[in-house]
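Hi! If you just cloned this repository, the fastest way to understand the data is to look at a raw example. We've pasted two of them here, unedited. The first protein comes first, obviously.
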Amino acid sequence: MAITIILIRSGATEAGLQDRYLGVLDQVLSDEGQASLKRRVANHVYPEAELVFSSSRLRSLATAQIIYPRMPAIVLRELEPYDYGKFSGKSYRELEAEEEFQQWLASPILFPPPDGEDPHAFGARCGVAIRKIVNETECKGLQKVAIVTHLSVICAILRRYHMPRPLYWDWQVDCGGGFITEFDSTRGVMTISEKF
């Protein structure tokens, strides 16, 4: 069965506007982040969805509420952002001189952040999220769902399911942006049909 999965990155926060690694730290949307999302909604950027899923982070829930105001988001723990550990809340400039940071940038799979989440466990967690979402969508006989989450989660999902296999950093998308994908639940393969 083919399911349309709309992957949406949560809107901008003050930390995001400062290019900080936010991860599991919780922040509300910035005024600019809210305004940008509302402009996109007014311009009909976001596709309709029959179900909406989100992480529990304030920025994701607020993004889902702005984009899909008539549809309460279903919160999944598995959609929580990557834990950047020691790097959380810091910017590239604050970290660039640290050897551990440079190792992580060069190979995030081999060198997770100190006190951060294991990348393999994170990828597996994101895989569980997709399986839960696909199962619920199919059980309800629906075909189009939105996932409002974080860039780290979007990258992990695409890395796990998209063919051909990408590198971890291959897909970057602005805050409030995303991808429309088609997920073949029989083969477990996702393809991007549009970036917005």
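Ok, and the second one:
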Amino acid sequence: MNHIIALVGMCGAGKSVVSDYFKEMGYIYIHFGAVTMDELERRGLEVNESNEKKVREALREEHGMAAFAKLNLEKIESALEKSNVIVDGLYSWSEYKVLKEKFDEKLNVLAIFTPRALRYERLGIRDVRPLTPAEAQARDFAEIENIEKGGPIAMADFTVINDGDINELRSSLDKLPLN
């Protein structure tokens, strides 16, 4: 039986790096944030934190707090028929509940935890969409207060601490008891 690993973690925790690991293991990759990027392009908006936030919030206003899960259900179902699936970017409690209700035992939630100071440091130097500490903190607050990101983190089936280098992270992922 194929299964889904849905990644949850604060911005800069290392979800993209973990996604790359699972892609190398043959998982089909689904990025919830692609919906935001597609909508930015459709609207002709520049890719930046301010526009991304506006679009994310507009999508949730239109489709509810489970917007990204709902908008990706068909992709997940199709991918799951072929392979294991890695979902990058489970954000809200509502998204968690939609995925859990739909996929139940096929779903594993993996929380990636990185201490805040280290996340902010990494976010400041990343190549794609770097954030200042103030931008990172504002995003943290918005994700915790507005979309209840803490719920999926608290309900995760597994948690990996990402406070070392990439080899330590990969070693931690190798030890996960996934089916």
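That's it. A detail worth noticing about the second one: The domain at 4-32+65-174 is CATH 3.40.50.300 (Rossmann fold).
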